Each structure stands twice: as structure tokens, then as C-alpha cells.
């Protein structure tokens, strides 16, 4: 080919290649910027509490797997980590961010205002009660008093059947609404089974598994006062209360997750489907179907609350009675109290 004729074609070819490279680079950048990311920020109990944070992480992993998205956990070792973690999650490009717990409320409100490009969901705290009611936040709340009522009723039936001192125990973590609604329902349910039942209630002030000895000490004290059933509402700390029940051959009731796997001393568990709430929140943000600036309430009726596996030692007639109570709660004919 004539060299003079070849050079123009060479220039055109190089230009085409340059445009192709530029287009490919542009497509790559678009793909990266369009990647949807979600995160959870734990409370101080950590993700191995076998309860509250464990469930939130379970929901995150489900979202990662089923929605094929990037996710991350930000661990809060102390309450001082809440705000930096909530901000970092947004700055790292996470569009959906879950603040896992009542105690993160003020920091979530502040972080949402500072990071309008992300949507925050806070577990166990109503949106309307957030300090600044940020438009890019959602309250993920639970009627835990409903499940508490059911497990309390079952505990009451068992104590009534067994005879002896008519006493049951509740060991809470911190005295906050998301703990007290469980206990209020439990107390009312137990006394629905028998008015003679006394409910002992105390708080450890902590949730992390490392503080389990505190909850065990409380449970042992309650057992010494005649408690035949111990209900733990203290996350990882509450594992100590269930250990006390096992040691003294008393019934234990788990919380949030189904904790039947802990042993044959577990009567049942009051379950809170935090994993479901987290997954649905992330999916709703990703799909663009979730509207912020409101609360999403989980109940027995919509499957957000429940009862875990029940010991085979429980008479079937008791389970029938409990399920009849469940229907009455769902129908609104029984309204368990949410406050003590």
C-alpha cells in the first residue's frame, strides 16, 4: 500500500481504538458507581451474641447472597463507636445502612442528617421518636410483647402444672423499651395462665456475651427465690441466665433467635425476626420500593414475631391453648401490654 494513503487510515484506526477504550472505561466506572452496597452497624454485644446482632447479620448475609450485592458489618465495641461507624458506612458508599438497636437512636438521627445519600433503618426505635426525624430514615419496630405474652403464658401453664412455688423469672439487659416490652408481655402472659404467679424482674445493665456472669448471678438469685422458669432478655449476657437454669435444672426461655439448640432445659424462645426485617429493608432500598420517613412494624400477624421450638415435654394441650391465645392476639381481642 502507498505510505501516503496508509497514514490517514492508521489515524482513523487509532481514533476508533481510543474511542473504544474510552467507552470501555466509562462503562467500567458506571458499573462500579452503580454497585449497590448495604451495611449493618452493631450494638456493643457483637455479632456472636447468638441473638440480636446475630440475627441482623443473618439478614445481611441473606441479602448479600440473594440480591448479589456488596455488604459489610461495622462492629461497635463501645457506644463511642456508633457515630463513627454510622458515618463511615455512608462514606464508604453503602446506600442501605441498618443501625442495630435502640441505643443507636441519637447517633443514627445525626448520621442520617449528615449523609442524605444513604437510607438508614434503625431496629427497635420508632422513626417519629428520632431526635431530628430525618427524611432518609426508617424505624424497624417489633411488637415483642406479643411473643412475650405467648411464652409467658406457656411458662405459667408449666409452673401451674408442676406445683411448688408459683414463681417465674425475667432477666433483662438494659431497662429500655425494647427490653421492657418483652418482659411486660411475658408477665401478663404468665399471670393470664394463673393469677397466683409471681414474676421476678431484674436487669444486668449489659448485653455482650462477656457479661454473661452478671445475668447468671441474677438468674441464680431468682431461682433461689423459687423461680421455676427463667426468661432471658439480655442478648449475649442472657446466655448466662440460661446457663443458670440448666445448672439448677429449671426451664429457660430464649429470646430473639430460637435458642432451643442450647439444651433440653430450653422450654421455648420468643422470636423476633430481625433477620427478616434487615433483609426486607435492604431489598426495599435496592428496589426503590421502600419509602423512608416512617415506621415498619413487625407483629405476630405479619410474621415478624413468633415462638421458637417447644420442648417435647410440654403437653400438647398447652400448645393448643397457647395457639388459641395467639389467634386472639392477632385478631386484636387480646392486647398484651408493652410497658411494665
Describe this entry's structure for a reader:
- With 340 residues, this protein is an alpha/beta fold.
- The protein has a 6-stranded parallel beta sheet, sandwiched between helices.
- It has helices at 3-34, 52-67, 82-91, 105-114, 144-162, 177-193, 212-224, 238-247, 274-287, 316-330; strands at 37-41, 70-74, 96-99, 119-123, 137-142, 167-172, 198-203, 227-233, 251-256, 266-272, 294-298, 305-307.
- Helix 8 links the parallel strand 8 (227-233) and strand 9 (251-256).
- Helix 3 runs parallel beside helix 4 (105-114) and helix 7 crosses helix 8 (238-247).
- It folds into 2 domains: 34-142 and 275-298, Rossmann fold (3-Layer(aba) Sandwich), CATH 3.40.50.2300; 145-272 and 310-330, Response regulator (Rossmann fold, 3-Layer(aba) Sandwich), CATH 3.40.50.
- The chain is globular and about 60 Å long.
